[in-house]
């Protein structure tokens, strides 16, 4: 090799090395957050994706906020509120110091516009139902909003804390039309829209006016100048990027890497214990074989949830011992005690007693019917292994579970059919009442009530809970539904999927929140050391 | 020469129509409903139906196809059913990064492959030849994603020399240049092997030919014999292979773009297919197949330049 060439190569390598020292995206007062998927759009009422919620929560505010415990409602844009005795009229007093990103003061008419847009059936939003049976929403003065219902709706305050109920700027919506939340966005959140390059980066900057952060944070003002949300679809790349300090925070770290990453000097790993995102298996209760309660119960008893939590979630998930998450509002401990414990021998005995006798191939039979059923699910990171573990568990008690997992492209379509006997799913929710109403009301068949669970008692209890005006009635009715469903083994609750926030060495004050998948919620209290 | 080019160009038209037809109906065969995907897992049937109506998915298939072709002829590829952005706009923003990545890969991979193959052939049977062939077999066998992740591990994580999370700017900027190095090594890496192997066997054939012996007999220097008399004649099959490989490179770009979060057309295609965004998926299929057709056309023309016998055929 000639001398000149050698020197050129050395110089090139040196230039690359020096030049790439700050190759990390960690520059200045900009926080880089990594995630694995982008949302389709950022109009609060148009996307149900958690990837949309995590951005919208930072760009916009809601009337109320949800505390880190996922149970307590705290003021946000509304500084106080009263609820009429009949539970049909909610009156919100708004803060008078709130400004949109463009500097315009927020008034009651903005709230009325946003909430009407959300709840109006004409807007054809997939989340309109969350607003309840609205009669009218009106402003009585510049800082008072009255939300009138046709009948009481116990979940309203929590729903008003979800990103779907964000307060947005009417002028911005009208100016951008279909491109609202695609090309721009104006609201009152701690951060303002800068740019969105789909599947790549979402950039937001500090809202200079913002000083009304919810009291769940120590500092009501944002401390970070800019936030860059970067999509890294490949999880191994994401892991390496965090370790190589090319980013500051993520809550999409693969479970397998959590322990490793927590040992890296400077990295901080925090768990949000109250994160509500649960994986379960549901049965179509009118299908042969699984319509037998004994089969459903036996499946519940034979499934080793501890082993699944350890093997599939690398010990980072919590086995679900109840229909709903223990952290959720109106969780019923009594129904949790009714949940059959892991006991394959007892499961086999139960099947024996129910008349399911082992056949020549080891699979049980009853009246010429084999104890076999088909489960559908999405082919995601966990379902293949969960289903294989369950298949082995069930085989031991003489039940043959056939697995059919689908790519996300076709999966949701397949899960809307009646082709299968059971299915896997995981979902975020904020209250027991919301989850139960969504999945178990007879009016919700065929989706999202994919179980075809049509039960008058359930409907009545849910109606009672939903329209309750006092906590005890609501709690009691929700508890009764949980007990009924646990007793009928309509679901096999599997694992509560945890949220782990990983932050790099220059991040301080970040705390995982996780409402509707939004790990950093309003993005407040976060400071950067350099 | 012109006639040859025009003929090839005309032949590309039915191929493109076939691709359109296949692309459209393949996306229809997939048992998915874009309305369900857009509505999300908790939506009721009424909401799904409303979205279906809005998207015109209830029209008969043949009608949808002809509406689509009609718009296409006017240069309108439709709008994304997911985020309402015109497909042409999305394609416009993603084609650049993909072309940059391919250019950055080919610019080093083709010369290196040809050089490796020529050296291997010239020093046939020696230790150097074996090393070169082993390297090219490795290049052919290593999956793109594995090479990508290995590079990330060493150059990105262990030594923290290069960034690997996306494209901070065009490749002629310093940041963009640094960011393209690893994806270009990854994508080009799978290209070097086949080119080296084809060049080696082709040069070997030619080195034994009469005209090379004549050139040597004339007393020409070895360098001239190899570069002017052997290599040029050996390049005809190599050019064909490069053309075909560029087609595969488009496939490799899909994986490379995913591993390195490179915002190109490959990632757009994957995203569109996964979210059942039919107009967007069809748009990417058209552009990718158009790319493939154009490269093959260029190869045909280049073939005629390199080998005068082809022109008259």
TrEMBL record, chain A:
KW RNA-binding (keyword) present: no
Domain Solute-binding protein family intervals: 72-436
InterPro entries referenced in this protein's UniProt entry, alphabetically: Peptide/Ni-bd (IPR030678), SBP_5 (IPR039424), SBP_5_CS (IPR023765), SBP_5_dom (IPR000914)
Primary subcellular site in the record, as a coarse category: periplasm
One family name in Pfam for this protein: SBP_bac_5
Segments traversing the membrane: none
Domain of life according to the entry: Bacteria
Entry keywords, A to Z: Signal
Secretion signal, residue range per the UniProt entry: 1-25
One term under GO cellular component: ATP-binding cassette (ABC) transporter complex
GO molecular function: peptide transmembrane transporter activity
GO term, biological process aspect, one: peptide transport
Subcellular location: Periplasm
Record-linked SUPFAM superfamilies: Periplasmic binding protein-like II
Family membership: Belongs to the bacterial solute-binding protein 5 family.
Protein name (Swiss-Prot/TrEMBL): Peptide/nickel transport system substrate-binding protein
Species this protein is from: Microvirga subterranea
TrEMBL record, chain B:
CDD domains noted in UniProt: TM_PBP2
Gene3D superfamilies the record matches: MetI-like (1.10.3720.10)
Keywords, alphabetical: Cell membrane, Membrane, Transmembrane, Transmembrane helix, Transport
Record-linked InterPro entries: BPD_transp_1_N, MetI-like, MetI-like_sf
Membrane topology: Multi-pass membrane protein
Regions annotated as coiled coil: none
Lineage: superkingdom: Bacteria
GO annotation, biological process: transmembrane transport
Pfam families: BPD_transp_1, BPD_transp_1_N
Cell compartment(s), UniProt: Cell membrane
Start and end residues of each ABC transmembrane type-1 domain: 95-303
Transmembrane segments: 9-30, 101-123, 135-156, 176-196, 234-255, 285-306
Entry's family note: Belongs to the binding-protein-dependent transport system permease family.
PANTHER family, A to Z: DIPEPTIDE TRANSPORT SYSTEM PERMEASE PROTEIN DPPB-RELATED
Protein name: Peptide/nickel transport system permease protein
Source organism of the structure: Microvirga subterranea
């Amino acid at each position: 090799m000639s001398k000149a060439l050698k020197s050129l190569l050395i110089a090139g390598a040196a230039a690359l090395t020096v030049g790439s020292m700050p190759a990390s995206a960690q520059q200045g007062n900009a926080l880089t957050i990594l995630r694995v998927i982008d949302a389709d759009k950022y109009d609060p009422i148009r996307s149900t994706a958690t990837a949309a919620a995590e951005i919208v929560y930072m760009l916009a505010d809601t009337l109320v906020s949800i505390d880190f415990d996922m149970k307590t409602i705290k003021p946000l844009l509304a500084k106080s509120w009263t609820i009429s005795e009949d539970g049909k009229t909610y009156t919100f007093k708004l803060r008078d110091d709130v400004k949109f990103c463009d500097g315009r003061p927020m008034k009651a008419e903005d709230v009325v516009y946003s909430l009407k847009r959300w709840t109006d059936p004409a807007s054809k939003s997939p989340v309109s139902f969350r607003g309840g049976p609205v009669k009218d929403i009106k402003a009585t003065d510049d800082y008072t909003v009255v939300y009138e219902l046709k009948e009481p709706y116990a979940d309203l305050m929590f729903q008003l804390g979800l990103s779907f109920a964000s307060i947005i700027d009417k002028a911005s919506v009208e100016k951008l039309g279909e491109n609202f939340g695609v090309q721009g966005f104006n609201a009152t959140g701690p951060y303002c829209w800068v740019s969105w390059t789909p599947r790549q980066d979402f950039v937001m900057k500090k809202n200079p006016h913002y000083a009304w952060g919810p009291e769940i944070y120590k500092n009501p003002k944002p401390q970070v100048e800019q936030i860059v949300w970067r999509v890294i679809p490949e999880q191994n790349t994401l892991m390496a990027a965090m370790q190589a300090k090319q980013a500051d925070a993520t809550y999409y770290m693969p479970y397998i890497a959590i322990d490793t990453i927590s040992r890296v000097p400077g990295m901080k790993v925090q768990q949000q214990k109250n994160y509500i995102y649960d994986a379960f298996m549901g049965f179509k209760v009118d299908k042969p074989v699984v319509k037998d309660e004994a089969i459903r119960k036996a499946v519940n008893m034979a499934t080793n949830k501890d082993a699944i939590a350890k093997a599939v979630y690398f010990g980072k998930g919590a086995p679900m011992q109840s229909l709903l998450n223990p952290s959720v509002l109106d969780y019923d401990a009594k129904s949790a005690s009714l949940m059959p414990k892991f006991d394959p021998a007892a499961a086999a005995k139960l099947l024996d007693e129910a008349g399911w006798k082992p056949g020549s191939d080891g699979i049980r039979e009853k009246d010429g019917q084999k104890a076999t059923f088909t489960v559908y699910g999405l082919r995601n990171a966990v379902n293949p292994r969960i289903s294989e573990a369950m298949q082995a568990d069930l085989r031991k008690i003489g039940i043959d579970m056939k697995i059919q997992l689908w790519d996300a492209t076709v999966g949701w379509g397949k899960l809307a059919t009646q082709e299968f006997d059971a299915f896997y799913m995981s979902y975020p929710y904020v209250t027991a009442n919301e989850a139960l109403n969504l999945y178990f009301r007879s009016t919700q068949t065929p989706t999202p009530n994919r179980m075809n669970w049509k039960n008058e008692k359930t409907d009545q209890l849910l109606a009672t809970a939903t329209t309750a005006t006092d906590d005890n009635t609501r709690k009691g009715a929700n508890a009764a539904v949980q007990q009924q469903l646990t007793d009928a083994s309509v679901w096999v609750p599997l694992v509560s999927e945890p949220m782990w926030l990983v932050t790099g060495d220059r991040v301080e004050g970040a705390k995982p929140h996780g409402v509707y998948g939004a790990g950093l919620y309003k993005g407040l209290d976060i400071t950067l050391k350099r | 020469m012109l006639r040859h080019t025009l003929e090839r160009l005309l032949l590309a038209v039915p191929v493109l129509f076939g691709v359109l037809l296949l692309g459209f109906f393949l996306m229809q065969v997939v048992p998915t409903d874009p309305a369900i995907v857009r509505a999300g897992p908790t939506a009721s049937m009424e909401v799904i139906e409303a979205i279906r109506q809005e998207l015109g998915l209830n029209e008969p298939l043949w009608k949808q196809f002809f509406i689509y072709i009609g718009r296409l002829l006017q240069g309108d590829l439709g709008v994304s059913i997911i985020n309402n952005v015109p497909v042409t706009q999305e394609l416009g923003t993603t084609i650049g990064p993909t072309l940059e990545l391919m250019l950055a890969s080919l610019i080093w991979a083709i010369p290196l492959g040809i050089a490796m193959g020529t050296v291997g052939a010239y020093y046939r049977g020696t230790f150097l030849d074996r090393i070169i062939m082993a390297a090219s077999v490795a290049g052919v066998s290593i999956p793109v994603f594995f090479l990508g992740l290995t590079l990330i591990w060493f150059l990105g994580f262990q030594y923290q020399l290069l960034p690997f999370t996306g494209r901070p700017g065009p490749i002629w900027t310093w940041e963009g240049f640094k960011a393209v190095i690893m994806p270009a090594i990854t994508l080009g890496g799978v290209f070097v092997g086949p080119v080296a192997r084809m060049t080696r066997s082709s040069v070997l054939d030619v080195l034994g030919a009469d005209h090379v012996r004549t050139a040597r007999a004339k007393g020409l220097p070895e360098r001239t014999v190899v570069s002017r008399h052997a290599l040029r004649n050996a390049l005809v099959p190599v050019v064909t292979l490069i053309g075909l490989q560029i087609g595969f490179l488009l496939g490799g770009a899909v994986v490379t773009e995913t591993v390195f979060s490179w915002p190109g057309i490959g990632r757009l295609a994957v995203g569109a297919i996964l979210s059942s965004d039919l107009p967007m998926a069809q748009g990417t299929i058209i552009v990718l197949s158009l790319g493939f057709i154009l490269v093959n056309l260029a190869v045909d023309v280049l073939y005629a330049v390199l080998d005068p016998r082809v022109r008259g055929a």
